[in-house]
Design goal:
This protein is α/β, with parallel strands linked by helices. It has ten helices and six strands; from the N terminus they run E-H-E-H-E-H-E-H-E-H-E-H-H-H-H-H. The protein has a six-stranded parallel sheet, sandwiched between helices. Strand 5, helix 5 and strand 6 form a beta-alpha-beta unit. Helix 2 runs parallel beside helix 3, helix 7 packs across helix 9 and helix 8 crosses helix 9. About 3% of the residues have low confidence.
């Protein structure tokens, strides 16, 4: 989906003061506009399905339907809508459930004043936004599942996996940009995100990882 000039946002939280605070933060930016609010997950889904919404910000814990249930419903019925989860809980369970439900990111309310704008923009680019300790949680889970031979929860987005594969195949940033129809700057950002998420330093380590994942042949 092309990134709109102005992202139309729905905020869903059962506390009006939270919705008001988020609205002030977001509408201070020219590329973000809050066009709807909801007090519970059920109302959020109804509005998002009916209105022209690009991004839904959903509180994890809401009456009638939780934010995670609402995210799953929107992912199934209107997958083009990006979803961010908002929570006061630094919880591994909520984090994994949110991502499995199709959320593009997980933002803690305690850090929303500094993170929410970046999270919205990342979601609209097709990237995943996670607070720092959440990245650590995902990487630890990935390593532990790999060691036990279990199905792995992917810490990388589909676009990051595409970029990783091309990096491992020794394509330059310019070549990757041309192949994926994105800018060189975007390629470099994806490369850095991949390195940060996997805790790696260079292309050699990324190539070894891509071979282990079966993205390329040794």
């Amino acid at each position: 989906m092309p990134i709109p000039l102005v992202t139309r946002i729905l905020i869903a939280d059962d506390f009006a003061v939270v919705r008001s605070g988020l609205r002030r933060l977001l509408e201070a930016k020219p590329d973000l506009e809050v066009v709807a609010e909801a007090a519970d997950g059920h109302e959020a889904v109804e509005i998002a399905l009916k209105e022209d919404i690009h991004l839904a910000i959903l509180d994890v814990s809401m009456p009638r339907m939780t934010g995670i249930q609402a995210a799953a419903e929107l992912h199934k019925r209107k997958p083009e809508i990006r979803v961010l989860m908002l929570s006061m809980h630094d919880s591994e369970q909520f984090l994994f459930e949110a991502l499995k439900a199709g959320a593009s990111g997980y933002v803690l309310k305690s850090g929303a004043d500094t993170d929410i704008v970046d999270a919205c923009r990342a979601a609209m680019r097709g990237d995943t936004f996670l607070y720092p300790s959440a990245v650590t949680t995902l990487v630890r889970d990935y390593v532990e599942r790999g060691g036990r031979g279990e199905e792995q929860f992917d810490v990388l987005t589909p676009r990051e996996l595409e970029v990783l594969k091309l990096i491992a195949e020794a394509h330059t940033s310019k070549e990757i940009a041309e192949l994926l129809f994105i800018s060189i700057k975007t390629v470099e950002r994806h490369r850095q995100n991949i390195l940060d998420k996997l805790g790696m330093r260079d292309r050699v380590e990324l190539t070894r990882y891509a071979i282990r994942r079966g993205l390329i042949q040794a």
